[in-house]
Amino acid sequence: MTTRLYYHDSFLYDFDAEVHEVTDSPRPALILDRTAFYPTSGGQVSDTGWIIPSVDADSKLRVTEVADSQHGRVVHYLEAPPKNLQPGTRVRGLIDPTRRRDHMQQHSGQHVLSAAFVRLFNMPTVSFHMGGDYCSIDLETPSLTQDQIEAAERLANEIILENRPVDTRYVTREEAGKLGLRKLPPAERDELRLIDIRDFDLTACGGTHVSQTGQIGCIFLRKSEKVRQGWRVEFVAGQRAVTTARRDYSTLTDTAALFSSHVYDVPQQARKSLDEIRSLRKQREQSQEELAAAQAASLLAETPEANGRKLVVRVFADRDLNFIKLLAQKLTRQHPAVVALLATKSPQPSLVFAQFVGGPQDMGALMKETMAKLGGRGGGSKDMAQGGASKAEELDATLEELARQLSPLK
Ligand SMILES: [Zn+2]
Prior knowledge:
Structural class: alpha+beta
Low-confidence stretches: none
Strand content: 25-35%
Bound molecules: zinc ion
C-alpha cells in the first residue's frame, strides 16, 4: 500500500520516497513507498511532475499520469523507461505546482458550488467531471433556470470572498452518519476523510483542496444543458476563470470590430446583419428567377424549331448549378416541346439535361453515359438530370457531340 502524503497536505509539492517497484509493461511506471502525486479518482484528474533518483540527480523522469492500482498502490506512469533504476533507490518527487493549484481551485470550487445548489434550491450533485478546459457537475433536478444558475454563482463567490477555512478531518462511518454530510460515499471503508468548509459544506472526499476558500479565487458558470438524469452545469474556477473570461472577451472584441460596434451591441448588430442577409437572399432568389425566365425566353427565341421541337444547347462560363437548373425548368415550362443540354464551367463544372414532360429521351440515362465519358458523377429522372464533372475543358465538345446525336430526333 502506498502512503498518500496528499491526504494530509495538498501543498506538498516536493517529497522524498523509496522505489518499490519498476515496471515496463504495458508502459514504463514506478511504484514508491509514499507519494504526494494525486492519482485520477473522484472526478479529479491526476498530477504530473518529475521523479529524480538520488543516485543520478541529472536524470529527471517525467511523470505523465498517475493512477490507483490494486491493493491501494499508486502507479506513476513515466514518459520514458528509467535507466538502471532499482527497487530500494531513494528518489525525490516534484509535483507540477501550477497543475496541482489549478486542480485544487477546480475541486474546492466544485464543493462550494455543489453546496450552493443544495442550500439554495435543494439540488444535489450526482457527478463531477474535471476536463482540460472546463469542469462540470450534474445536478439532480427536473429543471434549472438562468436565475438559479446566477444565484448559485453569486453565493459560491460570496463564500470564496469570505475566505472561510477548509479543514480536512477523519471520522468513522458511524460518526459521519450523525454529521449530516452533503454526500456519503458507498460503504467501502470504515474511516472517512471529510472536507469541511466552515459552516457551509461538509462532505466525504479524497481529493486535494485549498486551505481557505479565498484560494479558489472565483467561480464562473458557463453552459448548462439537460442531460439524462438532470442538468449539467459547466464551470471554471480560479486562474481558469480568468483565462476563460480573457478568451471570451477577445472573441467578443474581435466580433465587435467586425461590426465597428461596442462589445455590448454585438447581439443587436448580429441580428441586424442576419435580417439583412435574409432579405438580400430573398431578393437574390427573385432576381435569379427573373433572370432565368428572361434568359429562357431569349434562348428559345434564337433556337430554330424543327418538327415543332427545339433543342437548346448552352455552356456558361460562370453560373452555378442552381441557376442552370432553374433555367432548365423555365425552358421546359415556356415551350411545350424543348430539350435542353446546359452546362457551366465554374465555380464547379456541372451539367443539367432536361426535356418536356413525356419527351422521347431518357435524361437520367443520358447523363450517366455522359458522366462516364467525362469522369464525373450524375443521374436523375427521365425528364431532368444533373451531374458534376471534374474538368471543364471537354464540356463544349461533349455537348456539341450530344446535340449532333439528338438532332435527328427533333
Ligand atoms: Zn470532492
